[in-house]
Amino acid sequence: MTNFLRYQHLPSSSLAATASLQLSPPPFPTKRLANFGNWVTHFRSKAVNLALSSALTLGLSLTFTGVECAEAKVGVNKPDLLPKEFSPVIDVAGFLSDGQEKRLAQEITNIEKDTGFKLRVLAQNYPDTPGLAIKEFWQVDDRTIVFVADPTFGNILNFNVGASVDLDIPRSFWSRLAGKYGNIFYWKEKGEDASIEAAVMAISNCLREPVGPNNCSEVK
């Protein structure tokens, strides 16, 4: 199963009210100390896989640090909300105009051609979302960034980041991106569409930078 990391910028008040999902690890091995490393790897893998499943069920991403997940909700899987033909942009919330969708789709096509990474954009208002259905529709893998625009929790920018993407892009980039273009003041003033377009262009700029200690240090 593809391993994913999830990022969402949440205000402290929301974090305080967020319940943690309890994960039960397998019994701690006692026979050999050498087995401890394998146990940790196995446990973390299960946690990451569960994180991806929960994120796609909700159709949004939540803060993922260690084994910390936000409150689980009823899963959503509505393939009827998917478009009949493939598109890297799915707007079930109606945030984007037809022209904006076409421009974003072209930019995403160029990103994939130039960098090999796949950016996918889902605009929604939970629970009106295709949810888990997007995973198969988009063939989500380790080189995929699933960007979910959903204002449900205040900050509109949420990301599911494939493991290969995480190797090249600093984790701090996603929180800084959400803080700049996803905060409620920004999208309330400029519109959800402006947040989405600005985020896509910032991701495009970041993915095109040479990999190094300072890549993606600025949200452009």
- The secondary-structure element order is EHHEHEHEEHHHH
Strand order, largest beta sheet: 1-5-4-3-2
Distance between the termini: 33 Å
The Cα radius of gyration reads: 18 Å
The proportion of residues forming helix, as a percent range, comes to 40-55%
Q: Roughly what is the average pLDDT, rounded to an integer?
A: 77
DSSP helical segment count: 8
Give the uncertain stretches in residue-range form. 10-34, 36-73
Q: Tell how many strands the DSSP assignment holds.
A: 5
What would you call the structural class? alpha/beta
The share of residues in extended strands comes to: 5-15%
Shape: globular
The largest pleated sheet is described as:
5 strands, mixed
List the helices and strands and how they pair.
Blueprint: E1 4-8, H1 12-17, H2 35-58, E2 89-91, H3 98-115, E3 118-123, H4 133-137, E4 144-149, E5 157-162, H5 163-168, H6 171-181, H7 184-190, H8 192-208
Parallel strand pairs: 2-3, 3-4
Antiparallel strand pairs: 1-5, 4-5
Helix pairs in contact: 3-8, 7-8
